[in-house]
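step=encode ok
step=design start
structure_in=
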């Protein structure tokens, strides 16, 4: 199967960038494969029906118009199930093939040689983290593509997307996804020889093999595996690693030619890895390149809830919301914050609630981390409930005002480090017990009433946007 060349794809992305926001191009379109099925027919493989629907609705038009611009004719486009490409390799068309508009050659399948399997290099136990499975991986907008493609590859190793290249900043789930693929493949094919290691591990093994004269063994071992998974491959671009890059290049080619699955992760997309040879960059883009982006608020909450189930601890939803509100960097930090809260509750023997969370995380969350003021909270809350700020600050007791007031108090407690007295003064001269009562009331209802929870979450989101 022939796919459009990386150069042509670059031009396509550039054109798409003129029609769509760059984050959409980066997360939804840059990892697409364009298969030249016949003259003037481009097939785009997608992992499942959900994706085909989504692309059909959102991206058919822009893709079609951009392909027309770049290729000079209006091709027919079909979004196809990636499983239909089982056993086929996509080799990029070169520039001359494009320009002559030659009909694409029919499927070229490179048959893998039967390699003897040397000893299994990495067994699951002790190497793979039992938590890093697909079941424990929360899917959100930030990781949808990477998740779908990793799953597709794990279901059909070596068949569709090769290599699979996952990239994202620290703590966003690269290692988790890579190991999830390993677990999944081992569950289905316990006899598969999977090699899972880090880029640094590869370099170290290569150096020590070269030093100790066991280079042939090293080489044969790598040629004999079914799936090669290398985490943090960007290590190859650090410092003087030409020899290791050269070795990896040959390993990659041998495995790729033999249709063995290669899965890589990196802290940046292939073209941004410093000192990576151009031929490596282009190979890394042969299959799928999928980004992991930082999670949004909803996904952060969902991840914390999944973790709470995993740790089997009684953590109320409002604590997850509190942590998700305050920790935005990455998932590792989110997990660290939750562990801090759990540890703090253990030591102090206090119940796990937002007050405890605030205490436990006070070093992580400085009070001016969010420059949100009481005035902003009152503004957002009153607008949402269609009442005035003076209503919130009044002593009126009708429900249509007292409930928004309680929510305002709760949010102030959550976002600011103001004392109970200060909060009381800002919301109609209430004393500190009334403030505590309001916080408690909102907390309880938040944990019970889904619609109420949705309202409070929405207000939190609005507040964060108003920063
Ligand atoms: P990276 O390798 O990108 O630095 P990790 O894979 O080590 O990140 O992820 C950091 C932590 O966050 C791990 O404990 C992992 O289980 C967790 N994590 C990452 N992504 C998710 C997710 N989508 N759902 C649940 N947990 C996640
Ligand atoms: Mg990692």
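sequence_out=
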């Amino acid at each position: 199967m022939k796919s459009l060349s990386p150069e042509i794809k670059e031009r396509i992305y550039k054109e798409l960038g003129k029609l769509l926001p760059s984050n959409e191009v980066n997360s939804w379109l840059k990892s697409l494969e364009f298969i030249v099925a016949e003259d003037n027919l481009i097939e785009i493989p997608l992992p499942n029906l959900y994706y085909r629907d989504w692309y059909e609705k959102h991206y058919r038009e822009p893709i079609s118009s951009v392909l027309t611009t770049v290729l000079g004719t209006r091709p027919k486009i079909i979004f196809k199930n990636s499983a239909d490409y089982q056993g086929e390799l996509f080799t990029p068309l070169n520039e001359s093939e494009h320009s002559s508009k030659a009909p694409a050659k029919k499927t070229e399948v490179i048959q893998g040689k039967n390699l003897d399997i040397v000893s299994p290099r990495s067994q699951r136990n002790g190497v793979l983290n039992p938590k890093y499975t697909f079941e424990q991986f929360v899917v959100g907008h930030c990781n949808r593509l990477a998740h779908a493609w990793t799953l597709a590859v794990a279901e059909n190793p070596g068949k569709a997307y090769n290599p699979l290249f996952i990239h994202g900043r620290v703590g966003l789930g690269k290692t988790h996804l890579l190991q999830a693929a390993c677990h999944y493949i081992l569950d289905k094919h316990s006899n598969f020889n999977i090699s899972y290691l880090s880029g640094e591990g590869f370099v170290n093994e290569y150096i020590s093999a070269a030093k100790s004269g066991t280079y042939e063994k090293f080489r044969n071992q790598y040629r004999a595996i079914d799936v090669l998974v290398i985490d943090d491959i960007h290590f190859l671009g650090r410092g003087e690693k030409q020899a290791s890059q050269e070795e990896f290049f040959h390993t990659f080619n041998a495995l790729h030619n033999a249709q063995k699955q290669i899965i890589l992760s990196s802290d940046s997309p292939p073209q941004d890895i410093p000192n990576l040879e151009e031929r490596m960059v282009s190979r890394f883009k042969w299959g799928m390149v999928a980004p992991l982006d930082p999670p949004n608020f909803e996904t952060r909450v969902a991840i914390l809830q999944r973790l709470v189930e995993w740790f089997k601890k009684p953590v109320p939803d409002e604590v997850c919301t509190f942590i998700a509100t305050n920790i935005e960097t990455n998932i590792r930090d989110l997990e660290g914050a939750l562990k801090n809260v759990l540890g703090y509750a253990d030591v102090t023997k206090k119940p796990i609630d937002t007050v405890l969370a605030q205490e436990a995380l006070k070093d992580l969350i400085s009070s001016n981390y969010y420059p949100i003021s009481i005035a902003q909270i009152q503004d957002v809350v009153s607008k949402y409930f269609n009442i005035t700020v003076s209503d919130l600050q009044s002593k009126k007791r009708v429900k249509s005002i007292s409930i928004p007031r309680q929510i305002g108090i709760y949010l102030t407690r959550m976002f600011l480090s103001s004392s109970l007295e200060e909060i009381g003064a800002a919301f109609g001269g209430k004393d500190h017990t009334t403030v505590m009562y309001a916080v408690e009331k909102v907390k309880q209802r938040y944990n019970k009433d889904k619609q109420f929870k949705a309202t409070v979450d929405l207000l939190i989101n609005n507040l964060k946007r108003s920063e």
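step=design ok
step=annotate ok -> Residues 131-132, 136-138, 143, 168, 170-176, 303, 306, 331-332, 335 surround adenosine-5'-diphosphate (ligand 1) (CB under 6 Å).
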